[in-house]
Amino acid sequence: MPSDSRGSAQHKSLNQLTNLDLKDRQILFALEQNARQSNAGLSKAFGLAPDVVQYRIDRLVSRGIMKFFLGYVNFARLGYVDYGLFMSMQRLSREQEKSFVEFFINHPNCPYFSRSGGTYDYAADILARDPISLFEIVTEIGNVFGDFIHHQEIITRIDAVHFPKQYLLDACPVPSPSTYFGGKVTEPEKVDHFDHQILRILAHNARAKLVDIAKQVDLSDTAISQRIKRLEDAGVITGYFAWIEPQSFGYQSYNLLVKQNHFRKEDGDELFEFCKGHRHITWLLKTMGRWDFEIGAEVKSLEDLQDVVDDLKDRFSKIIQRIEFAPIFRTIKYTQYPFDL
After folding, report:
1. Which of 6, 9, 60, 223 has an alpha carbon within 20 to 30 A of 232's alpha carbon?
2. What is the pLDDT of residue 178?
3. CA dist list (Å): 207 to 60, 159, 213
C-alpha cells in the first residue's frame, strides 16, 4: 500500500478535483463499479431525488467526464484471446492518420483503440481465436498501413481486472473489482442471434433499459432479463462500468509496462492485492511478451506518477526488472463487444 508519507499528496490531489462536487464523485465512483445501478438506488444511497441523479449523470456525460457505459464481456468465454498491438508511426499525414484511426474504429475485432505517447503512438486490442487469425488481422493492417508503421509490438493478454478510481473519494472503502476478462480459453459458450444483439447493446450502453433492449431485439423484457442473467451466470458478462475520462478533470492516465524477474504465483497474488488497494491504480493486466504486466495509473502530476512507480519498486524490488510508462492521451474506441452481428 502507499506509504503514509504520501497521504497528504493524495489528499491534495483530491482537493484539486475542483470541477466535481462530492455528489458527482459519489455517482462516478458508484457507476464505475456497477453502471446498471438504478437511479432509485443511487438516489437512496446519496440523498438525491431520482430526477436529480439523472440530471447529474447527463451533465457528467455532456462534459465528457463519463464517456462510455460498458458491459464487460469476457472474450475468453466466447473463444477469443486478447492481443495488445502497440505501434509507433512514421510519415503519417493528418489525412492518412484520419484513415488509420477510422480503420480501427470500424474493425470488428478491435474492442479498444487509444492515442498514446512515449515509445508508441497508438495502442489497440485485437481479438482473435488463434495465432493464425491474429496473423491474418495484423497482415491486413500491414497491407494498408505498413508504410506508416515504424515499429510494432504484439503482447498476449492473459487476463485483466479493472479497479474503480479510489482517488475520487477520500477514505472510501476498497472496492471488490467485478469487471475482468481473460483466463483459459475453453469451449466457447453458445450464444445465439438474440444473445449477440443483447451483448452488443450492453457493450455500447450498459445502462440500457430492459424495455428498450426488448424493442430492439424483438423479445419480451422478461426474456431479455433471463438471457442477461444466463450470460452473467456463464461468466460471459462479468460486470458493468462507466468509463471515466481523467483528462476531463485534470488527471492524466498512464500505462506502466512492467517486466518481471524471478516471478512466482504468490508474487502475482500480492501484486493484485497491492493494485486493488492503491488509490491511483485503475487496472492490472497479466501479459506475455516484451513485458509481463500492464498497470494503469491515473495521477495529477509527474511527481505523483513517480510516487506510484516508487511504491511498486519499494514493494516488489525483488521481482521487478524494469518499469516503462506511456501516457494515454485519448481513448478513441472502447467496446467490449465489437463484433458485427
Report:
1. 60
2. 62
3. 15, 25, 10
Retrieve residue 105's grid coordinates. Answer: 474504429
Task: Tell whether 178 is covered by a domain.
Answer: yes
pLDDT of residue 17: 62
Q: In this structure, are residues 69 and 240 in contact, taking their beta carbons and an 8 Å threshold?
A: yes
- Domains: count for the chain: 1
Gyration radius from the chain CA atoms: 20
Q: What are phi and psi of 54, to 5 degrees?
A: -65, -40
Widest pairwise Cα distance in the chain: 57
CATH code for the domain of 35: 1.10.10.2890
CB-based contacts of 315: which residues, under 8 Å, 6+ apart? 270, 274
Task: Classify strands 122-128 and 81-89 as parallel, antiparallel or unpaired.
Answer: antiparallel
The answer as to whether 190 is a domain residue is yes
* Angular region, 262: left φ>0, alpha ψ -120 to 50, beta rest: left
Single out the residue of 152, 86, 141 nearest to residue 114, CA to CA: 86
Residue 187 lies in a domain: yes
Alpha-carbon distance of 55 to 47, in angstroms, equals: 14
Specify if 295 maps to a domain: no
Contact 124, 112 (CB under 8 A): yes
Residues 6+ apart with CB under 8 A from 302: none
Instruction: Write out the residue range of the structural domain in which residue 182 sits.
Output: 31-74+174-244
pLDDT of residue 7: 43
Residue 245: all three cell numbers together = 475520462
Residues 6+ apart with CB under 8 A from 191: 78, 199, 231, 236
- What pLDDT, on the 0 to 100 scale, is given for residue 341? 56
Predicted pLDDT of residue 317? 87
Which residues of the chain are under the pLDDT cut of 50?
1-16
Strands 81-89, 149-162: pairing kind = antiparallel
Residue indicated by cell numbers 473463444: 79
pTM value? 0.88
Identify whether the C-beta of residue 328 lies closer than 8 Å to the C-beta of residue 99.
no
